[in-house]
Amino acid sequence: MRAMSNSVTTPGIQPGRLAAEHYASHFDDLYPNYDPHEAMVAADRCYFCHDAPCITACPTEIDIPLFIRQIQAGQPEAAGKTIMDQNIFGGTCARVCPTETLCEGACVREMAEGKPVEIGRLQRYATDSLMARQGHPYTRAPSTGKCVAVVGAGPAGLACAHRLAMHGHEVTVYEAQDKPGGLNEYGIAAYKMAGGFAAREVEWLLSIGGITIETGRALGRDISLDALRGEFDAVFLGMGLGDVNALGIPGEDLDGVRDAVDFIAELRQTDDLSRLPIGRDVVVIGGGMTAVDAAVQSKLLGAERVSMVYRRDRAAMSASDYEIEHAATEGVTIITGATPVAIHGQGAVEEIEFAYTGGNESFRLKADQVFKAIGQKLVPLDGLAMAGRKLAAQPMPGVWAGGDCTDGGEDLTVTAVAQGRDAAEDIHAHLTSA
Predict the structure, then answer these.
(1) Topology of the domain comprising 36-131
(2) Residue-level pLDDT at 103
């Protein structure tokens, strides 16, 4: 993730578009947690399938029927432990996973009735219950005397670090940003991770011990891979994607045009949303989760008109149907089949011109602020084996990789966690096989 750019203030981009009292309500939890009675009612809907398709649909293979039965039995902390055994970021995933296309999409209730068991909300109830308990639920194995370097304190890196610490290894995590957490801290809509949850979850995870985090340390700038390989017994790379794709069109450098990931990061780190400048007419280019998060949060900050424009049809958008519908509900206009060809303005953006895909017609949208959300890319690293334009899972002897920087990362927190966890098990086997 790149360092956050400075906010751009042009005539149409202003802070404080809303009355002060509206900011807290706009960015509160999208869904509040269940109370015990609500959780019991929701758990009672589960059929506890013996060949549960929801487990197969979960990248971390959580035993979903088991944890729901534990909730039904009045044991939410035991349910939380069942979840965390497979996914140490179960709390985040309960909030941000596209459950409608994963576990809930495979739910038998969904197939039969069109209304699945609310697995995500039940998972949040269970994991929040466990995290509220005194003491960490996992203990470390006796020290192995081995030390591992982890690059990147996001979901992949920290999932790897936690599992390695459980096995008795000493872990040092190097993080380029000022805070650990990766996209959980910097890149997810604030209303999905309200109340500082990302930071609390990292603090809880680290309480197992054996993990040291050094922030402000970037690979290639402050540390080298060769040095890490020489100092540590193994290295895990989970640094995500450090650069963003460019539009490559005239006017991209005008004031008021910026990367959506920088905007979201700034929003997540501000302590006063009323001071965050936002345009009156905002255009977001892209069709993924970053585009949706930028568009919805622009509207929640008080933008009068927000349009999200994607070059292909709606079926090809990587954001889930639920997220797209949520954006529309919040007042975002969604335009598909249109490609940006130029951004117009005198010093600052005034309009953005689009051409209809596969046609000769074009149109313009008024805009005083444009957010680019057309994907991120890997910063090249010499000497590492690649799988397409991303890293291979084991790009060099003694070096493992996981998360968004690898082929198959899928840009999902739950997939990154699974890859970090599985890499840790592979590293542990490697370090203890001699």
Answers:
(1) Fumarate Reductase Iron-sulfur Protein; Chain B, domain 2 (1.10.1060)
(2) 97
Rounded to whole angstroms, the Cα distance separating 173 from 214 reads 6
Mean pLDDT for the chain overall: 94
* Domain 246-375 homologous superfamily, CATH: FAD/NAD(P)-binding domain (3.50.50.60)
Give 271-328 pLDDT, tens digit per residue: 999 999 999 999 999 999 999 999 999 999 999 999 999 999 999 999 999 999 999 9
CA distances from 86 to 53, 179, 262, 278, 406 (A): 17, 25, 31, 40, 20
Contacts of 303 (CB under 8 A, 6+ apart): 17, 278, 279, 280, 281, 282, 369
Q: Buried b vs exposed e over 399-420: b needs ≥16 C-beta within 10 Å?
A: bbbbbbbbeebbbbbbbbbbbb
Q: Residue 427: exposed, middle, or buried by beta-carbon count in 10 A (0-12, 13-18, 19+)? A: buried
Q: Which of the listed CATH numbers 3.30.540.10, 3.40.50.880, 3.30.1370.10, 3.50.50.60 matches domain 147-242+378-432?
A: 3.50.50.60
Tell me the residue length of the chain: 434
pLDDT above 90 coverage of the chain, percent: 88
Q: Taking the model in full, what pTM does it have?
A: 0.94
Question: What is the structure's pLDDT at 434?
Answer: 61
Q: Give pLDDT tens digits for 362-385.
A: 999 999 999 999 999 988 788 898
How many Å apart are CA 150 and CA 204, to the nearest integer? 18
d(C-alpha 303, C-alpha 327), whole Å: 13
**pLDDT, position 9:** 55
Where, residue-wise, is CATH 3.50.50.60 in the chain?
147-242+378-432, 246-375
- For 319-357, letters b (16+ CB in 10 Å) and e give bbeebbebbeebebebebbbbbebbebeebbbbbbbbee
**What does the alpha-carbon distance between residue 205 and residue 195 come to, in Å, rounded to a whole number?**
17
Q: Which residues of 282-309 are buried (b: 16+ CB within 10 A; e: fewer)?
A: bbbbbbbbbbbbbbbbbbbbbbebbbbb
